[in-house]
Design goal:
alpha+beta; N-terminal domain of MutM-like DNA repair proteins; Helicase, Ruva Protein, domain 3; 4-stranded antiparallel β-sheet; elongated; binds zinc ion; DNA damage
Length: 294
């Protein structure tokens, strides 16, 4: 599933490839992708004749800004965009085609068919579902250590599911939460309200650094992600714990373990990310809690 860095890469690529292009005709061949308006024919008709001005992002949603319209698109599991000449063969699972007046077209392909598109009048997109309940952007200037703590530090939930909750912070998915928690040396099952000030500072830095590096590298490509220009992201080669169970920790050499936290596969180094357990609190002499293995 694409995460924030991948979506940011798609955004930048699309901005370059289709910014300034005028849509002549839109064809929807899988109605369920179109969530708003209700009728795909209305979606097709509304977009004809409009020019793409720029491509923005809110969390993992793309916001394609046109003159007088905003198209909100979520790639979900497998959605991807590509720009083709109109005479090029159309690949299987291509569900939406935006034909431009210059002989090219933007194609949306989605094998799993979970992707969504919503069309809005400008401004309405941010005040209505699906964008209206999204939390703070981790790469924005507004995401300061204070803002981060204000949002989550008092909560009694485990830190990993908290970071994954898009209504607090947007765009952090399973891969980068594992990476950031490892970098900060914090166990994913720690209750948020028990984290100390230096831990919040480390976690904040780790989130910014992990996402920032991934955006620089063009996003990771753990499964099948390809960016809008057909290039595979390179960040997967730099992942520190995600997908590295049984491999030695790059920091201490201990084995990376995979557990389940909040229903999600979770990768940790038990030595670098200790979980203070009841025994540790009772001062039983055991310094380290054993990692839970499910
Ligand atoms: Zn380690």
């Amino acid at each position: 599933m694409p995460e924030l860095p991948e979506v940011e890469t798609v955004r930048r690529t699309l901005n370059e490839l289709v910014g300034g292009k005028r849509i002549e005709r839109v064809t929807v061949s899988l109605p369920r992708i179109i969530q708003r308006p209700a009728e795909p024919e209305a979606f097709e008709a509304a977009l004809a004749g409009h020019t793409i001005q720029s491509v923005e992002r809110r969390g993992k949603f793309l916001r394609i800004l046109l003159d007088g319209l905003v198209l909100v698109s979520h790639l979900r599991m497998e959605g991807r965009y590509g720009v083709f000449r109109q005479d090029e063969p159309v690949e299987l699972h291509t569900h939406v085609r935006f034909r431009f007046d210059d002989g090219t077209e933007l194609r949306y392909k989605d094998v799993r068919q979970f992707g969504t598109m919503h069309l809005f009048a400008p401004g309405d997109d941010l005040t209505q579902a699906p964008l209206n309940k999204l939390g703070i952007e981790p790469l924005d200037d507004a995401f300061t250590l204070q803002a981060f703590k204000r949002e989550v530090a008092h909560r009694t939930t485990k830190i990993k599911p908290l970071l994954l909750n898009q209504s607090y912070i947007v765009g952090l998915g399973n891969i980068y939460v594992d990476e950031a928690l490892f970098t900060a040396g914090i166990h994913p099952e720690r209750e948020a309200s028990t984290l100390k000030a230096p831990e919040w500072a480390r976690l904040y830095d780790a989130i910014r650094e992990t996402l920032g590096r991934a955006v620089e590298a063009g996003g990771s490509s753990v499964k099948s992600y390809v960016n809008g220009q057909g290039e595979m992201g390179m960040f997967q080669h730099q992942l520190l714990v995600y997908g590295r169970e049984e491999e030695p920790c790059t920091r201490c050499g201990d084995k990376i373990v995979k557990t389940i936290v909040g229903g999600r596969g979770t990768h940790t180094c038990p030595a670098c990310q200790p979980l203070p357990g009841k025994r540790a609190k009772a001062k039983s002499g055991k310094a380290k809690a054993k990692p839970r293995v499910n």
